[in-house]
Automatic annotation (TrEMBL):
Family affiliation: Belongs to the peptidase C26 family.
Record's protein name: gamma-glutamyl-gamma-aminobutyrate hydrolase
Pathway membership: Amine and polyamine degradation; putrescine degradation; 4-aminobutanoate from putrescine: step 4/4
Function of the protein: Involved in the breakdown of putrescine via hydrolysis of the gamma-glutamyl linkage of gamma-glutamyl-gamma-aminobutyrate.
Lineage of the organism: Bacteria, Pseudomonadati, Pseudomonadota, Alphaproteobacteria, Rhodobacterales
Pfam families: Peptidase_C26 (PF07722)
Domain of life: Bacteria
Swiss-Prot/TrEMBL GO biological process terms: polyamine catabolic process
GO MF terms, alphabetically ordered: gamma-glutamyl-gamma-aminobutyrate hydrolase activity
The enzyme's E.C. designation: 3.5.1.94
Enzyme class: hydrolase
One GO CC term, this protein: cytosol
InterPro entries with a match to the protein in the record: Class_I_gatase-like (IPR029062), Peptidase_C26 (IPR011697), PuuD-like (IPR044668)
Length: 250
């Protein structure tokens, strides 16, 4: 039996501010290869280049990774403001319907940071443009200076729902994670179950209620040294098993 193929949604990027490319972080690729024991496949984040049906036909699961551009607020009924930052409407146009179709068909999906927010928005959630501006909230953004180890350092605990899917997966009622995001869930959609929160109440772990397959997302970045981290590894292992199971069933 061949290994499952996991699609990673790419991001638009310019090399030297001129040459347009689609790119995927090596951390995501490494996590899929080494922890999921799967074949990574980058998908261009543009429905003009690949459609939802084609993507599902060739992949056994999908990772929706982080990115600097944010989901456009029009996707959840809000007006655009300067606080919302930059956008990638092409990724919105592919990722949101792809998430919905995957969930409907039981195709495994794992959302990371922006991908977590895409999952939330795809199922009716709204987002706040800058969590740190809400009274009583922490600054969840990436530290502006320091090494990669310092930027991705474990910075706060996430308290999980007792006996919820994340607590069962991690075997613990709370886990220590990194935090590198500005936006966050404001009001979750009816099927978006918040299963873990930061100390300030910010949603950090979600799953889609009633999904027939793996449909989980985290606001942090578990792809960083995924094979070494006691929280990241079981998350990617579970996702990899789900993708392998779908391949065997095909």
């Amino acid at each position: 039996m061949s290994r499952p193929v996991i699609g990673i949604i790419g991001n638009q990027h310019q090399i030297n501010d001129q040459y347009q490319v689609q790119a995927v972080g090596t951390m995501n690729i490494t996590a899929i290869v080494e922890v999921c024991d799967a074949i990574p496949m980058m998908l261009p984040a543009d429905p003009a280049m690949i459609g939802v049906a084609d993507a599902i036909q060739v992949c056994d699961g999908f990772v929706f990774p982080g990115a600097r551009p944010n989901v456009h607020p029009e996707e959840y009924g809000h007006a655009e403001t300067e606080a919302h930052g930059t956008f990638d409407r092409a990724r919105d146009a592919l990722a949101l319907p792809l998430i919905r179709e995957c969930v409907a068909r039981g195709v495994p999906v794992l959302g990371l940071c922006r991908g977590f927010q895409e999952m939330a928005v795809a199922f009716g959630s709204t987002l706040h443009p800058e969590i740190r501006d809400i009274p009583g909230r922490l600054n969840h953004r990436m530290p502006p200076d320091g090494t990669m180890e310092e930027k991705f350092a474990l910075r706060h605990w996430v308290t999980l729902t007792p006996d919820g899917p994340f607590a069962r997966l991690f075997g613990a009622p709370e886990v220590l994670t990194n935090t590198l995001h500005g936006q966050g869930i404001e009001d979750p959609g009816s099927r978006v179950i918040v299963d873990g929160r930061a100390p300030d109440g910010t949603a950090e772990a979600i799953y889609i209620e009633g999904a027939p397959g793996f449909a989980m997302g985290v606001q942090w970045h578990p792809e960083y040294k995924a094979g070494e981290d006691m929280v990241s590894r079981p998350l990617f292992e579970a996702f990899g098993r789900a993708a392998a199971g779908l391949r065997r069933a095909a």
